Amino acid sequence: MNYLLNKSILKRTKLLLMFCLLTGFVSAQMPENGIPAPTNNNASQCPCIMPDNSVVFQVKAPNAQKVQIDLGKKYDMEKGADGIWSVQTEPIVPGFHYYFLVIDDVPVADPASQSFYGTGKMTSAIDIPEKGADFYAIKDVPHGALSSKYYYSEYTKSWRRLFVYTPPGNDKNTREKYPVVYIQHGGGEDETGWAVQGKTDIILDNLIAEGKAKPMIVVISNGNVRAPGGGFGGYSSKGMAPFKEEMTKNIVPFIDANYRTLADADNRAICGLSMGGGQSFYVGLESSEYFGSVGVFSTGLFGGIRTSGSGFDAEKEIPGLLSESEKFNKNLDLFYISCGEQDMRIEHTKKAIKTMRENGLKVEFNSFPGDHEWQVWRKSLHDFASRVFQ
């Protein structure tokens, strides 16, 4: 018995020693004045954010021939005598940035950083804080709850997951009913996007505590809906039909049946980023019996990602949107559009809005510093949530 016990302890000790050696794969000194990124797996290691927002990356790969960091722009890393590769990037704009570690031309996730589902697969990311922007920081305020729920879709004939944010006091004020925002992710993402990268619950907690937004439920669903026997659609009413069916016939009824909602169009909103913005545009504007407010963040629908075609025609996409704009104005409590100021979609978006307004359609617009990335979308949600249901 003692022999077997000692043998087991020795085996576990060896495994623990091996684990400690493996997890200490980067032991380079922290750069002076550098701070660990909040998305690091280890707070005492790099990636490290420097005072000018440049970033120092390090990785131990003694047998590699070439190592790079791919942040949209590739940076060649230099190998030290200790086998640790390192590089300092140029200053990077604040916000959330996906990136890859590229070892001998093979892109992989960086074990030093947390991974997120955001490019059609799990991907490393670095979140660079923006000075003075604390609207998505956890504060000493009442907090709501973000929960994962499964529902059965009669359309896809499968179980699907969504996240639901319920406001502070929901579990105590059991007779109170709430308006609902349905918020959609972008292409290459899923329902975890707004729940994790977007910091939806924290943004709503802070807004509600400041009295800048009404207490509301926020539903974060998976917008990747494949038509039975078919593929995913494109940027058109027909292409969005599978998602429209899923949202109106499955998701909305599920939420109304399981949560204390104000179940009418005036108290429902749909919004989303990029692909989700296109989904919100079509489904929201075509379904006034379901949604009284629509938010479109950084969509490529208006242009900026298409290389051919005659451009965006609002009247063609949504018949009556321009010719019968007063009807849409009457049905919509809020039609909101936003875009990043450095996003290649910005000028196309402004042009589309100008045409809509010239034809009498009421559109509220805002832009934020940044490209096609999460800091812009966090700000878009913050702005939209402060306007909706008012």
Automatic annotation (TrEMBL):
Highest rank taxon of the organism: Bacteria
CDD domains in the cross-refs: E_set_Esterase_N
Signal peptide span: 1-28
Keyword entries, A-Z: Signal
Pfam family for this entry, one: Esterase
GO molecular function, one term: acyltransferase activity, transferring groups other than amino-acyl groups
Recorded coiled-coil stretches: none
InterPro entries, sorted: AB_hydrolase_fold, Esterase-like, Ig-like_fold, Ig_E-set, Mycobacterial_A85_antigen
Name assigned to this protein: Esterase
Organism: Draconibacterium orientale
